[in-house]
Description:
alpha+beta; globular; 2 domains; 10 helices; Growth Hormone, Chain: A
Amino acid sequence: xxxxxxxxxxxxxxxxxxxxxxxxxxxxxxxxxxxxxxxxxxxxxxxxxxxxxxxxxxxxxxxxxxxxxxxxxxxxxxxxxxxxxxxxxxxxxxxxxxxxxxxxxxxxxxxxxxxxxxxxxxxxxxxxxxxxxxxxxxxxxxxxxxxxxxxxxxxxxxxxxxxxxxxxxxxxxxxxxxxxxxxxxxxxxxxxxxxxxxxxxxxxxxxxxxxxxxxxxxxxxxxxxxxxxxxxxxxxxxxxxxxxxxxxxxxxxxxxxx
Length: 258
């Protein structure tokens, strides 16, 4: 089957990405509408304090997004999401033991929420949409529409499930169940990453030249000495093409450090 005729489901794991958005938004954001009261009771802090720390986590999410975007370009969005879910799982699991560990409560609470904010930055819509574009840009609009539909039901499903879970298992049990669900999401995305084709952006970013050879710089077209991965040491001061079987640099006296 050719690339053009392959069905979308074999190119972009839209359903896995969609389910991941239900778990990401539902368990690392909407769940705190129900969790804020038991967390405040367990830590002997007010609900306003808990929500303030949660707001700090959301600010951290916004600050991290440019960095997360560069990680997506370098490593692939699916790989970033996999790590993000594990990070969020660690933060949620820690909240279940808030007030029961020999660490100052405010420090423990802040650390857990910072992990949750980092997990949100690495696993929500922006990264899921990046994965859809990386894997099949021509069909990305359709993929994004499907993923968005899944994410739209996250709040309803969370509201219907968290309250009964709190009554049955308490704060610690609920946080451990949520953490387990996020680990499941990480495994699901990891499996999708192994089955999906390598994103074109990541393929293009991979080094194509062995160390110690001269080759044309991909940005300025100059003949440059390639010493290590993604590190160009010496480039000609003026645009100049490489010559010879190994790309030897001519007029080395005109070279300069970059």
